[in-house]
């Protein structure tokens, strides 16, 4: 029996904000959150699978929280790049460093005014088929949205 594994033709992920860490984040992307007054880093390229990595026959999962307390929709872009070492989805001049190949839009209502840290949503990506299957699920309501993205044979 020959076991074949596919490798990713590009790096795939999404864009996120995270707590600012001066050891790994660039000061140019730092901002103070108006709600919790902590320092955050914007435009981080959150990688699900790296270019050249063997693709697992399973879903990749990441959990996120809303950017603001009043957010009632989560816009989750799906990005790819053929370049190595991309840390941010936008460079310091404001130019995109990745290509958007899809997007998930998830309703994240908050009728009980829960703190945003309790309003997580999961993003799942499955690279094992002929297309990328992406979905997001809100922990509070269980609502789920899905999309399909093509693997790009030609990268910019």
Summarize the structure.
The chain has strands spanning 11-19, 30-32, 39-49, 59-64, 73-81, 99-107, 121-126, 131-138, 144-150. The chain is mainly β and 156 residues long. It has one domain (11-150): Substrate Binding Domain Of DNAk, Chain A, domain 1 (Sandwich), CATH 2.60.34.
Can you walk through the features of this model?
This protein has strands at 11-19, 30-32, 39-49, 59-64, 73-81, 99-107, 121-126, 131-138, 144-150. The model has no long low-confidence stretch (mean pLDDT 92). The strands form 2 sheets. Strands 2-3-1-5-6 form a 5-stranded antiparallel β-sheet, with no helix packed on it. It has one domain (11-150): Substrate Binding Domain Of DNAk, Chain A, domain 1, CATH 2.60.34. The chain is built from no helices and 9 strands.
Pick out its properties.
single chain; 156 residues; mainly beta; Substrate Binding Domain Of DNAk, Chain A, domain 1; five-stranded antiparallel beta sheet; four-stranded antiparallel beta sheet; 9 strands
Write the layout of secondary structure elements.
Elements: E1 11-19, E2 30-32, E3 39-49, E4 59-64, E5 73-81, E6 99-107, E7 121-126, E8 131-138, E9 144-150
Antiparallel strand pairs: 1-3, 1-5, 2-3, 4-7, 5-6, 7-8, 8-9
> What is the rounded distance between the termini?
37 Å
**Helix content range of the residues, please?**
under 10%
What is the number of E strands?
Answer: 9
Described by strand count, sense and barrel closure, the largest sheet is: 5 strands, antiparallel
Secondary-structure content class = mainly beta
What is the number of helices?
0
Q: What is the overall pLDDT average?
A: 92
CATH architecture: Sandwich
What Rg, in angstroms, do the CA atoms define?
A: 17 Å
Q: How many structural domains does the protein architecture include?
A: 1
């Amino acid at each position: 029996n020959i076991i074949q594994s596919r490798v990713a033709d590009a790096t795939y992920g999404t864009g996120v904000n995270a707590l600012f860490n001066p050891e790994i984040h660039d000061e140019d992307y730092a901002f103070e959150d108006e709600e919790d007054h902590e320092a955050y880093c914007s435009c981080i390229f959150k990688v699900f699978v790296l270019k050249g990595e063997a693709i697992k026959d399973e879903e990749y999962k990441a959990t996120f929280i809303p950017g603001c307390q009043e957010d009632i929709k989560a816009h989750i872009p799906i990005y790819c790049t053929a370049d190595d070492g991309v840390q941010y989805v936008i460079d310091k001049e404001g130019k995109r460093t990745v290509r958007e190949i899809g997007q998930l839009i998830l309703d994240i209502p908050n009728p009980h005014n829960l703190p945003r840290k309790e309003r997580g949503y999961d993003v799942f990506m499955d690279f094992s088929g002929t297309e990328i299957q992406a979905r997001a699920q809100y922990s509070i309501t269980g609502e789920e949205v899905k999309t399909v993205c093509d693997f790009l044979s030609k990268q910019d």
